[in-house]
Sequence to fold (357 residues):
Amino acid sequence: MTPLRSRSRLPRTLVVRLDSAGDVLLAGPAVRAVAAGSSYTALLCGPQGAAAGRMLPGADDVLTYDAPWVGLEPPPVTRAATRRLMETLTAGRFDRALVLVSYHQSPLPIALLLRLAGVGWTAADSEDYPGALLDLRHRRPPHRHEALAALDLAVTAGYALPPGDDGRLRVTPPPPTTHLTGPEPYVVVHPGAAVPARAWTPGRAARAVAALSAEGFRVVVTGGRAERELTARVAGRHALDLGGATDLPHLAGVLAGARVVVAGNTGPAHLAAAVGTPVVSLFAPVVPAERWAPYGVPHVLLGDRHAACANTRARHCPVPGHPCLDGIGDAEVLAAVAALTDDPVDQGEQTERGAAV
Fold:
């Protein structure tokens, strides 16, 4: 398809990503490609992803819709909410839309609403037969990372990254956060996750923080307002507790200042990648690491990728003791942090259990 930038009139384009903050951050390269070939680019995000959307370069506006087919606690289907969305989309006068979904999701519910709102052309990855709902039905290559799959769709739709754009994750410059962290070097441990299966149990996270502190690392523990009890327990007397102290832009600043971030497969891991900070990824195999590992930064994957929960998309660990993550030893954590900070700690098990990229 001829790149859109060669046309005399660039389109008004809507990019849809209705999931979490991490999913929206992974859409960043695709959004920048769309913005380079559009006169106006808006994002349609769910309430959990809107703050991340407002941090993406290239987005002129962020619209919010709590879709009944997305999220851990989806709202009921109502005519009023659907009518408000239709009015918003119609007022946007969008020429085109790209619907970004993960490999196991369907773009067709929102594609139908885009059609009814008068959006003239819609593209999406779809395993399901789309009928008249899609103008471009794209098929992603097997095992493709989510960031690359989204960019593939944008490129196939005629958009391209601007010259000099390396295609990595990116956010707008975060605010300074030295007043929160202090000036000394530090490592971040982010113990929470949207679903428990993707994080250490609190006791295991607390032991890791104690081990890092004993090894000489200054540790900062981060978390949202609802995670204050968790971060206080994990930080204990060994770390600085910033639970509830940051919104998403300030969390980006804290992560940007860190030497390395230790986190599960959750939004802050992708936010760390977006600000260029290496990640020790505690990756539970409930979803494939090849699709959701930290993208574009040095990282080490830790966890048993062949555990019984592999590819189940389980929200709660189905195996007693949460062995895929809680079974990671302190020596492995210290070796992974050392590998990414160049500290002289024994790195013996890093290549056996981790994968540095």
User: Anything to note?
Assistant: The chain has 15 helices and twelve strands. The first strand starts at residue 12 and ends at 17.
